[in-house]
Structures are given as C-alpha cells and as structure tokens.
Design goal:
single chain, 184 residues, mainly beta, 4-stranded mixed sheet, 1 helix, 12% helix, globular
Length: 184
C-alpha cells in the first residue's frame, strides 16, 4: 500500500511539474510580432532574467522591448527548507519543501541549474511593474504564510554526492549510490 501511495504521489508531482514547465515555454504573439521568453539563465544565476519580450523590428532584426531582472526572495522570510525523498530505488525523486511568510510581494518562480555537483535553486519574488529595488523591504502590511514544494531536477544524475543551495543561504546534501535512472 505504501508503494501505491508513493507511485501516486510521484505521478501527481510529475503532472504538476509538467504544467509548471509548460507555463515557462516561449510564446509568440503574431498580432504584434512579439516573442515572450519566460526565463533566461545567466552564466551564474538560474532564472535571473524573466518575462523577456522581443519584437520583430525589420528584416532579420529583433528588438528587446522589456525584461524583468528577478529579485531573490528575502532569506529572512524563509523559515524552513526540508529535503523530501520519494522512493528508495532509482529513479528517486527529491523535493524541497520551503516554508515561510511574505509581505506585500508574492512568491514567484523557483528555478534551478546544476553546476558540477551543486544544484543551485533560486526562489524569486513575483514580478510587479513598480518593484524595482534590488533589496526588497518589508512593508507594514500583515503577512501570509506559504508552503512551496519544489521537485528537484535529479532524474538522470550519475551516482555520487550532491549539494543543493537555495538562494545562496540554505544548503544540504544528497547522494545516489547508483545512477538515478530507470533500470533497463
């Protein structure tokens, strides 16, 4: 029975993850010749540029018309980060459960990139047109609690020791004794 629940949970999370990924696909609007690219990584930061808009200008040229340089969610508002493991045989799925509170600014995208054996996970504020400061400040409004469960992109990783790093402030380790793939 436990195996049934674990498999059901894995399937539901995979479906949710696919929906989240589908929302991050580029969209072309032919009415104004504009391409919106939801997320672009820099060389060192996953997902730092979001909601990029480029418009066809003339001939083969495109013009950048807008982008949002995302702001990481303030670490003081994150109360706990827990690594959750589903399964004991490959492929093992890992999740980060992030709990905290937010004021005025809603939690936004959570993006990740693997660099060597370190999985960098960045948790950003949602985009607001009037929000331009680099270090968010806490407003006088009351706060709301949040809980985010983030599937880590670990399928296909070779056996070994790994570290995750959330917003540069929360870290932990995990390991695979064998390659994290389906057995043939």
């Amino acid at each position: 029975m436990k195996k049934f629940y674990a498999i059901t949970l894995a399937i539901l999370c995979a479906l949710k993850m696919q929906l989240a990924v589908a929302q991050l696909l580029p969209v072309y609007d032919s009415t104004n010749s504009e391409l919106t690219i939801p997320v672009v990584n820099s060389q060192t930061t996953p997902g730092v540029f979001q909601n990029i808009k480029i418009r066809h200008h003339q001939g083969e040229f495109w013009r950048l018309t807008a982008y949002w340089e995302a702001v990481k969610f303030h670490s003081a508002l994150i109360e706990s980060v827990k690594l959750v493991t589903v399964g004991s045989q490959p492929p093992i799925q890992l999740y980060l459960e992030i709990k905290g509170r937010f004021y005025c600014m809603d939690p936004g995208n959570i993006l990740q990139a693997l660099e060597d054996n370190k999985l960098k996970v960045n948790f950003y504020y949602a985009e607001y047109p009037y929000f331009t400061i680099k270090e968010p400040t806490i407003c006088a409004a009351s706060y709301d609690n949040f809980r985010k469960v983030v599937p880590l992109e670990v399928y296909g990783l070779p056996a070994g020791q790994y570290e995750y790093l959330l917003n540069g402030d929360f870290s932990g380790t995990f390991s695979f004794s064998q390659n994290n793939v389906l057995a043939e």
